[in-house]
Structure formats: structure tokens, C-alpha cells
Write a structure and sequence with these properties.
With 129 residues, the protein is of the alpha+beta class. The chain is built from two helices and four strands.
């Protein structure tokens, strides 16, 4: 024999659970879309190294772009990491772009900051003739 009002309580619980799932889904989508970003730094002096055979159609069109996509290991207590760039003959950087993704954030969180995904694009300054 059903308890009076138990059907109403069950329906209310289903609605609360459904509303919670919807709110969680919306927050997850917002967090994922906000967690992917890139920062680009460009100098106003100098000209980027040209690449006439480049078929890029993005921001780096007709420029020689060097990409670094790797995972670095760093101590949990270390505050910084130095990556030496040896590819620029001129010794100067024209554009540097650092990209952070959800995968990189999750990797850092799971490893407690010991491993970090690094995605960098850079363009050297054109060497003077």
C-alpha cells in the first residue's frame, strides 16, 4: 500500500536531480570554454622572419613560425622554468604566443603541478642583410 504523498515526493526529487544535472552541465560547458586561451606578445620594432613558401592562412601568414608542443617536468615547489631558444639567428623574438588548453590544465591538476603542457609559437626577428 503506497504511502500518501510519496508519489509527489518522488516526482519532486526527480525534478531536483534533473535541475542539478542541468546546472552542472551548464557550469561544465562554461568552465571548458573559459579554460582554453592564448596570449600573444608582439614587438613593434623589427620585422618577422618571412617564409614565402608558407601556406598558413592564420595570424602567422607568410611568417616562419617555430612551434613547441611538449610536456615539461617541474618540481612542485619550483616557481619558474627556463626554456632556451636557439633557433633565432638574430637573437630577437618578433612574436611569442603561449596557449593554454583544458588538457594542459587537467594534466597539471592530476600531477599536482609537476607536469605542465607547453604550447608555444614564436617568430624570430628578420636578420639584417
Amino acid at each position: 500500500m503506497p504511502v500518501p504523498g510519496s508519489t509527489q515526493k518522488t516526482n519532486d526529487m526527480k525534478r531536483i536531480i534533473l535541475a542539478g544535472c542541468v546546472v552542472f552541465g551548464i557550469l561544465s560547458i562554461l568552465m571548458m570554454s573559459a579554460s582554453c586561451y592564448s596570449v600573444r606578445i608582439k614587438t613593434v620594432n623589427g620585422v618577422g622572419m618571412p617564409d614565402p613558401v608558407s601556406d598558413r592562412t592564420d595570424y602567422y601568414r607568410n611568417l616562419q613560425v617555430i612551434e613547441i608542443d611538449t610536456v615539461i617536468k617541474i618540481g612542485a615547489l619550483d616557481k619558474d622554468f627556463t626554456y632556451l631558444i636557439k633557433d633565432c639567428e638574430s637573437g630577437g623574438l618578433h612574436i611569442v604566443e603561449y596557449r593554454n588548453t583544458l588538457g594542459g590544465i587537467l594534466l597539471s591538476a592530476v600531477t599536482f603541478g609537476r607536469k605542465r603542457k607547453v604550447n608555444i609559437k614564436y617568430v624570430c626577428i628578420k636578420t639584417p642583410n
